[in-house]
Amino acid sequence: MSTPLTTASPAAPAKVPGRGAPKLRTTRRRTAGKPRRSVLLTVLTSLIVLYTVVPLVWLVINATKTQTGLADSSGMWFADDFALWDNIRDTFTYHDGVFGRWLLNTLLYVVLGAGGATFLAVLGGYALAKFDFPGKRGVFATVIGAVAVPGTALAVPTFLMFSKMGLTDTPWAVIIPSLVSPFGLYLMWVFATEAIPTELLEAARIDGAGEARTFFTVALPLLAPGIVTVLLFTTVATWNNYFLPLIMLKDPDWYPLTLGLSAWNSQAETIGGEVIFNLVITGSLLTILPLIVAFLLLQKYWQSGLAAGSVKE
Asked: What PANTHER family does the annotation carry (predicted)?
C-alpha cells in the first residue's frame, strides 16, 4: 500500500543564544492632533494675512497725518507731525458735528435692523428645526433660493415698493429691509437642529411648560452661540451697508457712516469742494473700531457657534 506523501513544514529558525529577537521595521504614525505641515498652505495664509493687515496698518498710519502730510510723506510711514487727536476732534466737529449724527444713525440701523433680523432668524430657525408643518419643504427651498440671490438684485424692486408706500428718505427704508436675513435664518435652522435635543423639549412639555416658556427657558440658552454668530453677521452687514441707503436716502441727516464718508470723499471731485482726505481716513478708522471691539469681545461665542455640529457624537 502506498502512503500519502506529506510535506513537512519548514522548521522555525532556532534562536541563537546571545542574540535578541529579530528587529522589525516600524513606521511612524501621524497623530490626528499633529497634522503634517504644508509650506504652500503657510505661504497662502501669510499672503491672506498681509492682504488683511496691510490696509489696516495703512489706515492707522495715515490717520495720524494732516492734509499736507498725506501728500508729502510715504503712505506706509508716519509724517513729521502727529495729528491723530486733532483729526479726531475735527472729524466730530466738521460741518456742525454731522459725523456724530451719522454714527447715531448707524447705531439705530444696527440695533433695530440687525437686532430684529437676529430675533426673527432665531424664531424662524427654531420653528423650522423643531416643528413639522405643511409646506416645510417649500420654505426650505425658498430660504436656500433667497440666500443665493444677492442683495443688490433686490435693491431696485425694494426702492420701487417703498416709493409707492411713501417710506423712502426715512429710516424705515433702511431698517425694514435689514430685518430679512435668509442666511441668518438658515444658520439658525441648522444650529437649532443640532444644539437642542428633542427629548429635552418633550420633557419640558411633559412638566407642563408651554411653548413660549419652553423656548425662552430651555431652548434659548442652548442657542446662545448661534445667536451671537448670526448677530455678528447681521451687524457687519448692516454697519457696512452702502447701496441700500444710497438709493433710499436723500437727506444727509439720515445718512449712515458709509454714505456720509463717501459724500465727504466726493467733495474733492466737485468744483469749490473742500478736500478733507485726512478726515475721511480718520472717520474710516473710527468706523471700523466698534466692529473690531465687537469681534474681540464675542470671539469665543462666535467660534463655538461656527464649530457647532461639526463633530458627530
From this structure: ABC TRANSPORTER PERMEASE PROTEIN MG189-RELATED, ABC TRANSPORTER PERMEASE PROTEIN MG189-RELATED-RELATED
> Could you report the per-residue pLDDT of 45-96, keeping only the tens digit for each?
999 999 999 999 999 999 999 888 888 888 888 888 888 999 999 999 998 9
> How far is 236 from 241, CA to CA, in rounded Å?
8
How far apart CA 95 and CA 39 sit, in angstroms, is 52
Placement of cell 443665493 in the chain: 148
The domain limits of the chain are 40-82, 96-310
Q: Are 201 and 130 in contact (CB under 8 A)?
A: yes
Q: How far apart are CA 175 and CA 106, in angstroms?
A: 10
- 96-310 to CATH, choices 3.30.360.10, 1.10.3720.10, 1.10.468.10, 3.40.50.300: 1.10.3720.10
168-220: pLDDT as tens digits:
999 999 999 999 999 999 999 999 998 899 899 999 999 888 899 999 999 99
pTM of the model: 0.80
pLDDT digits (tens, 9 = 90+) for 105-162: 999 999 999 999 999 999 999 999 999 888 888 888 888 888 888 878 888 899 999 9
Q: What is the mean pLDDT of the chain?
A: 84
